[in-house]
Amino acid sequence: MNKTAIIYSFNTQKSKKISEKVIDAFGGSKVDSINAEEVDKKVIEKYDQFIFSVPTWFDGELPNYWDEFIPDLEEIDLKGKKFALFGLGDQKNYPENFCDAIGIMAEIIEGLGGELVGQTSAEGYKFESSRALRGDSFVGLPLDQENQARLTNERVKRWVDQLKKEF
Questions:
Q1: The domain containing residue 151 runs over which residues?
Q2: Cβ neighbours of residue 89 closer than 8 Å, sequence gap 6 or more
Q3: Most CB contacts within 10 A, which of 67, 117, 128, 157?
Q4: pLDDT tens digits for 18-41?
């Protein structure tokens, strides 16, 4: 297995905790942690496998730090690189755009030639719509710490086990 980078905001509480769970499930030293607020083109060029933490902000938007990096990302050919996406959302208070940021980032990555891995079944989620949904599966791992926190550990473990096979 190639070296993997997990990119998340070191300044957020919930996303940071989930990222740490992902890192632990991977076996710690097999994943390099990179602050999303400091990511640059060199990081993307250095690795072939990525895990992006992409929480949904407001009414279905990317966090500011990802918005600011997208123009640089769009200058990189992502062919041959694999990406797994996870993000936080709230099915109860934002059911019409649950984890949309995962879908937004997925569209950008695919448009640049990157390969997405780590699809998750939509079974067990209750929401109206999501840009991250394709058929009966999400293009990554959506997590709802507000309404389904008790399911997070098992979902993360199952997802990382899947990623180990797909990376």
A1: 4-166
A2: 55, 56, 97, 98, 99, 100, 101, 127, 130, 142, 143, 144
A3: 117
A4: 999 999 999 877 899 999 999 999
Which pLDDT tens digit goes with each residue over 80-117? 999 999 999 999 999 999 999 999 999 999 999 999 99
- Domain count of the chain? 1
**48-61: pLDDT as tens digits:** 999 999 999 999 99
The beta strand positions in 76-153, using DSSP E, are 82-88, 115-117, 120-121, 133-134, 137-138, 141-143
Gap between the Cα atoms of 17 and 9, Å rounded: 10
What 3-state class would DSSP assign to 161? Answer: helix
Cα–Cα distance, 59 to 100 (Å, whole number): 9
* Rounded Cα–Cα distance for residues 69 and 81 (Å): 17
| CATH, residue 52 | 3.40.50.360
Phi, psi angle pair for 110, to nearest 5°: -65, -40
Classify burial at 13, counting beta carbons within 10 Å of its beta carbon; exposed 0-12, middle 13-18, buried 19 or more: exposed
Q: Which residues of 41-60 are buried (b: 16+ CB within 10 A; e: fewer)?
A: eebbeebebbbbbbbbbeeb
57 DSSP 8-state letter: B
